[in-house]
Amino acid sequence: MPRLHAKSQVFLAVSATAALLVSASPASASVIWNGDAALGTKVFGTTLCDSPGRVTVGNWNDGHGSFFRFDKPAGSTSRCEGHNVRLPNGQEYAWQNNKTYWFGWDSMTKTGDTGCVFQWKSNGTNDQHSQNYPVLMKVEGGRLKAWYVATGEEWILIGSTPWSAGEWHSIQLGITTSSSGGGTLDIYKDGVRFASRSNARTWDNLGNKPRWGTYFGTDNTKASINWVAGLKLGTTRADVL
């Protein structure tokens, strides 16, 4: 068998090492959290659902997979939400300032007036925070609306798009956190960006955490239900598609 030239041997060794590294790297290295409903409500830090509201897990075996059902009964003005994310090691994720996060999920609501379906909620109470909720998303009037809420409770509508109740919609939300006002927001529904904001203060005094579900609403005479599936957290939009 002929001997390889020294340069050829080096090239083959480097190529083999590179191939090994590629094969050893996970396909989704930046996925931080998989909130698959099949894992149950333990994927949240906690659930906030005043009785008789309920958070349950279901699966219609229609190919869509498992989902969370956030159920706020007719007449209720309270909330039914999943708060924060819990990692497989049992710890809640440690959010950071000056970092980019992407959330992805599918949502279907019972009505076009489900109220608040997502909050980037500030930690602390009363004078411990300056914004309370820098980012809010609501389903009302048959539309999905997104707000950036600046200090001083200044509500700034950054996007609005039609929302069909009783149908699944995919959502991706990107937040670059910043306590100094250099943050950004990008929100997609069904593959189309409908809201964005730059130069935003997206990190409050004690930090922030996400919430999904249903809160308040413009029509409390009807049950408010938000089905949520496929929850993910990553560092790029591709991670959570």
Please state the average pLDDT score.
88
Total number of strands: 15
| Cα-to-Cα separation, first versus last residue | 51 Å
Order of helices and strands: HEEEEEEEEEEEEEEEH
Shape category: globular
Q: What fraction strand?
A: over 45%
Rg, Å, rounded: 21 Å
> What characterizes the major β-sheet?
8 strands, antiparallel
Helix content: under 10%
Helix/strand-derived category reads: mainly beta
Count the helices. How many? Answer: 2
Keywords: Lyase, Signal
Protein name: Polysaccharide lyase
Organism: Streptomyces lichenis
GO molecular function: lyase activity
Secondary-structure blueprint of this entry?
Layout: H1 6-24, E1 33-35, E2 44-49, E3 54-58, E4 67-72, E5 79-85, E6 100-109, E7 115-122, E8 135-140, E9 143-150, E10 154-162, E11 169-176, E12 183-189, E13 192-200, E14 208-215, E15 224-234, H2 237-240
Antiparallel strand pairs: 1-15, 2-5, 3-4, 4-15, 5-14, 6-11, 6-15, 7-8, 7-14, 8-9, 9-10, 11-12, 12-13
Question: How would you describe what is shown here?
Answer:
Residues 1-29 form the signal peptide. It comes from Streptomyces lichenis. One of its GO terms (molecular function) is lyase activity. This is Polysaccharide lyase. The chain has 241 residues and is mostly beta strands. The chain is built from 2 helices and 15 strands. It has helices at residues 6-24, 237-240; strands at 33-35, 44-49, 54-58, 67-72, 79-85, 100-109, 115-122, 135-140, 143-150, 154-162, 169-176, 183-189, 192-200, 208-215, 224-234. The strands form 2 sheets. Strands 1, 3, 4, 6, 11, 12, 13 and 15 form an 8-stranded antiparallel sheet that branches. A 7-stranded antiparallel sheet has the order 2-5-14-7-8-9-10, with no helix packed on it. The longest helix has 19 residues, at 6-24. The protein is globular, with a radius of gyration of 21 Å. Mean pLDDT is 88; it is low at 1-28.
